[in-house]
Design brief:
19 residues; 1 helix
């Protein structure tokens, strides 16, 4: 995975956690 992809995944995970 690229650093950019990892950042996007972390953002997606944060969204799931919020919900």
């Amino acid at each position: 995975l690229k650093e950019e992809e990892i950042e996007l995944l972390r953002e997606n995970v944060a969204k799931y956690v919020v919900e």
